[in-house]
Amino acid sequence: MRMGNPKTVWFLLAMFLGISTVGIISSNATEKPNYKYAIVVKETTLKDEAWGKVVNALKEKHNAQVFTYQNEVNEVKDKLADYFPKYICFVSKPLDASREFVGEVHRLTRQLDTDPYGDSIWAILTGYDAEDALRIAKHKEPLIVKYGLGGTLAWIDRVKEGIAYFEGMNEKGRYMLKKSDSEKVEDRKDGPTDSCKPMVDLLNKNKVDAMWTSGHATEHDWMIYYPQSRSKFISSQGKLYGQDSSGNKYEIKSTNPKVYLGAGNCLIGHIADMDCMALAWIHSGGAYQFLGYTVPTGYGYMGWGTGDYFFRHNGKFSLAESFYIINQALLFNLEKGLVKEARDLYGHTQNDKDTVVLYGDPAWEARVATGKDVKVPKPIWETDIKEKEESDNKKVFELIIKFNTDVDFDPISSCRPVFAFTPSRLQEAEIIDKGDAEAIEITDNFIIVKYKGKVEKNSQKKVTFKAKVLNEDGK
C-alpha cells in the first residue's frame, strides 16, 4: 500500500497553523492524485444511471480504476491484487450492503497479498438513495472536527469544544462540557433529565462535526440512556428523529458534513431494510462517514478502538485510517497469540474483525482539529520513522516512539498497540533490534508494536529494522 500523500501533509500543517484547508483541495483540483484508488461495483449497479453517476464522480475525483463483478465481490480479487490500491471504495445500493457483504469485503481486502493483514483502506459508499451517495462522492473539502457531541462521555476531552452526556439512567443530568479556551473538561450534574431535545437542537444548528454513541441500539433506534430508555433516536424512510421520554418527536435535518461513530452500539451499522439508522444518518443526519456494528456487541474492540485512534492522536489518523488501524491491531493480537481465546474479557472477538463497517468515501479526510488554538491533551504516543544507512541491499529504518502519558498495554481488550504507516512500501522486512517490545509486525505498509504491561510517561522506545523499498508498481 502507498501511504505517502502530500495532500495529507499540507492538510495537517494547515490545521496546526489555523489556515483554511479549502485551497489545499481547490488549487490542485486539476492535478491527478498520487495514490491508487479502486472502485468496486456490481455490474447491475453500474448500469443503473443514477448509481453510475456515483461511480463516475468518484472516478473523476480520485482518478480511480473501476472493477466490476456479476454476483460475488470476490470475483475481482485477482485484478485488485494486481492493481494493489491504497483505497478501495465499494459502491453499493443500500439493500446490497448486507451484513454478509460487509464480511465478504473484510475478507477480500486481506487477500491481496500473502500476509494475513488488510491491504487497503476501504469503505462502502451507499445511501438511502443514489443522490446521497453522489453528494458524498462529489464532496472534496476535508473535515476538521472542532465540535463534538457525545452520547457517552468518552473522548470529549479530545475535541476543541463540545458536550457529552452521560448515558446511565442512574445519573440523568450529568454531562461533560469542553470549552475552546481550556484543556479542562467540566464534569457537571445540572443538565436536563432528558438530553434528547438538546442533542437534536445541536445537530439541527449544524454545529456538530462528530457524534459518538454507546448503549443499546438496534437497526432502527438508539436508546439514549442505559440500560433501558424511552428517550431515543429513531429512523424511518431515510428520516432521523429524536423522541423524548414523553413521546415528543423531533425531526433531525442536519446538512453539514460530519462523522458518526456508533462505537458501542449493537446493530446500528446493519442495513436490514430501508428504515434503518445508518441510511437515515446519511440521508438526513449529515453523516458523510458512518461507523457501526452489523451484529450485537458488548464492549467491542473495533468500535471503541476506532475512536481511540481517531480522537486520542490529535489528527494524526483520519477516521478511515483509524478504522483500518484497529482492524490490523485486532488481527495482530490474534496472529501473535496475544489473545488466547476467540473472546477475551470485554469483547475482543473473532466476531469483531469482519462485522464493523465504515460507510462513505475512504479517501475523504476527516481528522480531529489540532494546532496552537486547540487546547487538548497531547497524543498518547508519537512516532517518527527515520531512514538510515543501507545494509545488505536493504534500507535501515529506526522507529522512535515517545510516550506522552502512562500507557497500559494490558489487558488485550483495551490495548491499542503502537502503529505507524511506513514512508514507502516495503518487502522482506527484518527486525534488527526490537528493544523490549513484546511483539512486532512489519508489513509492506505499516509497523505495529506492543509492549508488555505499563509504559511510563516520557518514556522513549526504539525499534530498528531493515527492508527492501518498493516503488509504486511494487517493484
Low-confidence runs of at least 5 consecutive residues: 19-29
Helix content percent band: 10-25%
CATH C-level class of the largest domain: Alpha Beta
Tell me the span between the first and last alpha carbons. Answer: 12 Å
The counted number of beta strands is: 29
**Cross-sheet strand order for the largest sheet:** 9-8-7-6-10-15-16-19
- Class by SSE composition: alpha/beta
- Backbone shape: globular
How many independent structural domains? 3
Structure notes:
With 475 residues, the chain is of the alpha/beta class. It folds into three domains: 6-138, Rossmann fold; 143-368, 3-Layer(aba) Sandwich (Rossmann fold); 381-470, Immunoglobulin-like (Sandwich), CATH 2.60.40. Helix content is 23%, strand content 31%. It is built from eleven helices and 29 strands. The chain has helices at residues 6-17, 22-26, 43-47, 49-62, 77-83, 99-108, 130-138, 196-204, 277-284, 301-311, 319-335, and strands spanning 37-42, 65-69, 87-91, 121-125, 143-145, 147-150, 161-165, 175-178, 185-188, 210-215, 221-223, 232-236, 239-243, 249-252, 258-265, 287-293, 343-344, 348-349, 356-360, 366-368, 381-391, 394-403, 407-408, 418-421, 425-433, 439-442, 446-450, 454-455, 460-470. An eight-stranded mixed sheet has the order 9-8-7-6-10-15-16-19, with helices on both faces. A four-stranded parallel sheet has the order 2-1-3-4, with helices on both faces. A hairpin with a 3-residue loop joins strand 26 and strand 27. Helix 4 (49-62) packs parallel to helix 7 (130-138) and helix 10 packs across helix 11 (319-335). The chain starts with 5 loop residues before the first helix and ends in a 5-residue tail after the last strand. Mean pLDDT is 92; it is low at 19-29.
